[in-house]
Amino acid sequence: MIAVLGLVVGVVAGLVVRPVVPMAVEPYLPIAVVAALDAVFGGLRAMLDGIFDDKVFVVSFLSNVVVAALIVFLGDKLGVGAQLSTGVVVVLGIRIFSNAAAIRRHVFRA
Amino acid sequence: MNDDNTPRRELPPERPPGPFPSTPPTPQSGDRDGEPGLTGRQRLAKAVWPPRVTRAQLIVALLLFVLGLGLAIQVRSTSENSALRGARQEDLVRILDELDDRTKRLEDEKRKLSGQRTELENSSDQAEEARKQTREKTAQLGVLAGTVAAEGPGIRMTINDRAGTTDSDTLLDAVQELRAAGAEAMQINGVRVVAGSYFTDSGGGVNVDGHRIDAPYRFEVIGKPADLEPALNIPGGVVQTLKNKQATVDVTRSEKITVDALRQPKRPDYARSSSR
Fold it and tell me: What is the rounded distance in angstroms from the CA atom of residue B76 to the CA atom of residue B88?
């Protein structure tokens, strides 16, 4: 419950406060958000499986974000930033879908 | 997103013990941990209600807060700003190139159009100038041809002739004398005298261009008064000759003489302008 509240508060804060993102971080924000979404879906699935562990969630969340940002950063440096970020988004999207499928099986039994 | 750097260092040691599929999506169906015997749906309901303040909940809440924040910022920045904000470097370079091209094209067009405008302005200026010169020339020629009224400094001469001795020759002499002295426009008793005017005797008076005039003869002459008056008064000149014939002559200078008698312009039957 508190976790859900945290998400809601975060969205509201982002909309109300309008924080200015530093230019250096800006290109990595979308990929990082997608990676974090992937971690959240994985965590939700683990919770439904009854194997949720907060330490694992924290580590996977942060590592996902950092690795995604790192890949985009590296891609930009190598000149293939657009392609690489597309690849990252595709991979994370597939994982989100598979996790979502597992969650759906738990919640709807179908 | 700013706390990315701190956990990166503690990443390697923490990773191995975490064998659970929050990141790696290995399909797991059975319950290995937690409370056995509960379905996923029950666990979800239990986690959501009643709210419990545990370390896990707080940490997850913090991370989800960060996620929500990032999500909101990203959504906001992509929706409120133009496409440029989220565009990549290559795209920006391409867009910039296109804009440069377009600017160049528009600059070219502008230069062409302003050249055209200058040309048009010049030509209309020239046309205006030509019209002005034509108007001035028309006025000058009109004064000479007697088709327009003229005014300026000059003299008035009145010849009073009771004896009737003044004939066309005398008047013609006076006119020639005035012309020689620089008269630019003149009229005698309301008849304009121009280059083609002729004088004939007719009974007691004189015919000027077919108009009969009688004494006293009043000349109105535009020209330089200081030249005109002495020209008439020279010894043996017009005034003396007339006085010898018992006529009285009165010459006065004036700063403003109006010659308003007009002559109809006569279109030449044979002569044509040879210019152009």
Answer: 18
Between residues 76 and 115 of chain B, which touch chain A (CB distance below 8 Å)? 76-78, 86, 88-90
Using the beta-carbon criterion (under 8 Å), do A13 and B35 form an inter-chain contact? Answer: no
In the 3-class helix/strand/coil scheme, how is chain B assigned residue by residue? CHHHHHHHHCHHHHCCCCCCCCCCCCCCCCCCCCCCCCCHHHHHHHHHCCCCCCHHHHHHHHHHHHHHHHHHHHHHHHHHCCCCCCCCHHHHHHHHHHHHHHHHHHHHHHHHHHHHHHHHHHHHHHHHHHHHHHHHHHHHHHHHHCCCCEEEEEEEEEEECCCCCCCHHHHHHHHHHHHHCCCCEEEECCEEECCCCCEEEECCEEEECCEEECCCEEEEEECCHHHHHHHHHCCCCHHHHHHHCCCEEEEEEEEEEEECCCCCCCCCCCCCCCCC
> Which run of H or of E encompasses A7?
helix A2-17
Kindly state the greatest CA–CA separation across chain B: 159
B66, A36 contact by CB (below 8 A): yes
> pLDDT by residue (tens digit) across B29-43?
443 444 556 677 777
The CA distance from B144 to B155, in Å, is 18
Q: What is the pLDDT of residues B214-223, one digit of tens each?
A: 878 899 999 9
pLDDT at B133: 93
Residue B116 has pLDDT above 90, yes or no: yes
End-to-end distance of chain B based on CA atoms, in angstroms?
88
CATH architecture of B149-259: 2-Layer Sandwich (3.30)
Domain ranges of chain B: 38-86, 89-145, 149-259
pLDDT in tens, A13-65: 877 877 777 777 777 888 888 898 898 898 888 888 888 888 888 888 899 88
What mean pLDDT do residues B203-230 have? 87
Quickly count: other Cβ atoms within 10 Å of residue B96's Cβ. Answer: 10
User: Across the interface, do A32 and B27 touch by the CB < 8 Å criterion?
Assistant: no
User: Which residues have CB under 8 Å from B73's CB, separation 6+?
Assistant: A14, A19, A21, A29
- Which residues of chain B are within 8 Å of residue A4 when distances are taken between CB atoms? 48, 64
